[in-house]
Hints:
Number of helices: 7
Number of domains: 1
Structural class: alpha/beta
Order of helices and strands: EHEHEHEHEHEHHE
Helix content: 25-40%
CATH class: Alpha Beta
Number of strands: 7
Shape: globular
Amino acid sequence: MPDAALQGRVALITAASRGIGRAIAERLAADGAFVCLTARRAEGLDEAVVAIGRDRAIAVAGAADDPAHREEVFARIEEEFGRLDILVNNAGINPVFGPLAGLDLDAARKILEVNVIGTLAWTQAALRNGLGAQSEQAAVVNLTSVTGQVPSPGIGWYGVSKAAVAHLTRTLSVELAPRVRVNAVSPAVVKTRFARALYEGREEEVTADYPLGRLGVPDDVAAAVAYLCSDGAAWVTGQVLTLDGGLLNAGGTA
């Protein structure tokens, strides 16, 4: 994409203090956007804002599934920037590992609350607070996962939640057109703290299943998100872009 492809636009990225979320915030800012970052911990957010630049980034700490936090975020965006053009729903959790037959149902409900209901709630709140009102190319990008496309041992319920996010993406793309485009990215294993249980101590073994010969890094995801937010994707909506280094076509699972 050309430099400054997002010049002057305002983006909100959830769970952006580290990992994929931070890489997305940094990439959108590098492409010219003003960014608002959210996450639970203020310290990590402050570090991210300093790295991006206080002239281009703000942060609001809080829990992604807290309605009061969401309203605080949109009030701050209105105060600082006066508009919103892009929403990146990156917040997600996976606190359990094991087969579905023994899954704790309270944990299952919590995963759906954050990963699915949270994605819808942030989108609803963004629309109430002006997403698409001042831009003909407003965009929502959701984070799903290849675990929502093929069964993945030990993280099946996470995959169920991400499959729901993918279908939510497609449904919203129809309902919100033409003012707001809605797409998603679906990564395989990306080298972050969140995913380290899937590769730590056996990275060479895991990487062998990837035709491109490596695991993903946060910048791989950030580049795809930046494209989907840009005018280069002006005729793209309702798509779930798989980012997997060829894993699924080779018959692999995350």
